[in-house]
Amino acid sequence: MTIGKLILIIIVIGVAIIGAVPLIAMFAWPMYGWWGMGGMMGGGPMGGMGPMGGGMGGMGPMGGAPMGGGQPYGSQPYGPMGGPMMGGCPAWWGSYMNVNDTNVAEYVNNYVAALGPNLEVKTIEKYSNNYYVLVWDASRNMGAFELLVFYNGFIHPEPHSMMWNTLYGPHASGALNYPIGLEEARGIAERWVSSRFPNATIVEEYAFPGYYTFHFRYGDQMQMLSVNAFTGQVVFHEWHGTYIGNVLEHEE
Length: 252
Prior knowledge:
Mean pLDDT: 74
Strand order of the largest sheet: 1-5-4-3-2-10
Structural class: alpha+beta
Number of strands: 10
Order of helices and strands: HEHEEEEHHEEEEE
């Protein structure tokens, strides 16, 4: 083989790899969301909550509006590439450029009210990377879905809530009967926590359509994990960061 042919082969392979990157990103997005899944207690790619440090730190991917354009502070729900997201709890950018402890409850209530009269905000917890919001389905007396609210006003479903939710997710099946019940899921969660966070204690548990979420206390920190009601898969909410405190306490 001549050097010219070898160089040509290398160029062809390089072009093929570069061309495959967008396709990989497109298929990976439904699993991870466009902020990524990050490292333990951290953010997404490049240290931020969005690609190139967007999400919490910027106005979206690479610090701008949702990728591909759109109205960064309009009233339309925007997903990746600037288009509306599918599913019962779409991504959304409201009118608040700075969400804080004073206005976050009103901000999220406005979002939830537009999704259905049976939904209400039950809990808002503040973390270093974002606010965590538990939305309650009053008609079924169970959790509806979970949200991430970034300090720049961007609202997005929690990754597992988007993918596992059988009523409000983009792949909703309507199923409310699962092979794994709350008690079994609690056992799975307890074993997972004890193996990774010695002396941690589960203090809250919530059933959602298709999965369960457990809040556990570890020293002065509150963290959480979710268990799939069909497979028993565990997802640790590593993207929240450090727990700061509760902004809105739920009522029992």
